[in-house]
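S1.2 Input.
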Amino acid sequence: MKSRRTQRDKSQTDKSPTDKSKTPGRDARGGSTPRGNGPSGNGGRTHPAGRRRRPRTPVRTNDQPGERLQKVLAAAGIASRRECETLILEGRVEVDGQVVQELGTRVEQHEQTIHVDGETLTKPKLAYYALHKPTGVLSTSSDPSGRPRVTDLVPPSLGRLFNVGRLDMASEGLILLTNDGELANRLTHPRHGVEKTYHVQVAGHPDPKILADLRKGIYLAEGKAQVVGAKIKTRRKQSTILEIVLAEGRNREIRRLLARVGHKVQRLVRVAIGPVRLADMPAGAYRPLTAPEVNALRKAASGDPVPRQEDSRPPVSRDKPR
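S1.3 Output.
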């Protein structure tokens, strides 16, 4: 019995972590181990296999002066702030010749050179347009299939514009076009609660309880969704036209909500975004926003109550798709 204990104790002693039989800086197979405080040689941090390290960039940290890069890009009219964040994460933005992929990076636009997709960033004059999107037109910046987009309905001479929010391909109505990424972000973010108004033709005749349920909230796949307002505008023989107001913009939200209560959408038209209204603008036409409309949109996006503006809109234009 004593012999077995002695052998076991000796074996454990051989396996002790204080065993100095291995040469420091060499692994068990004789290879070199990385320098540093941990097995990865970078202060104990490990990098999972296959993950690329982000490039080092000469940019400011969050406690230094400057604006966040995504905010600078949005203010320059590249895209909305969320879309600019995607551009950064995809490695399509360079600062002083080096790729930046860190969200929250601070830059000084007047001191540093910024490129997006190889083009130097400039600060264009801000522009704002209202457009009546027809059905069959996409609300997207690009389409591999070459289908018509909202931005194809305005001439290239207007400069680089992007749409604020989206309407699905089967829907029509008011869409705003701008190069003001900061305002676009405020108009689309649910936190600011900018209301969008829709006229929706549905099959059948919804009763008051269904409208109350829409206002109270109905559960969709991603959670509870509700409308700000829902009322009947017109009753027809086999259909009803509803006025629905939303303060958020989930994908095909109105169509899915009405499908859940048993009323299929036959036609959906967005007639207002905050204080800006579609009015009688024909499908495919566009017009510049007036200064009072732009100011009213800014107030709506800040959460302040906005009085309805007088109708002082300029004439609309109709251009053939590019």
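S1.4 Remarks. The first helix runs from residue 2 to 14.
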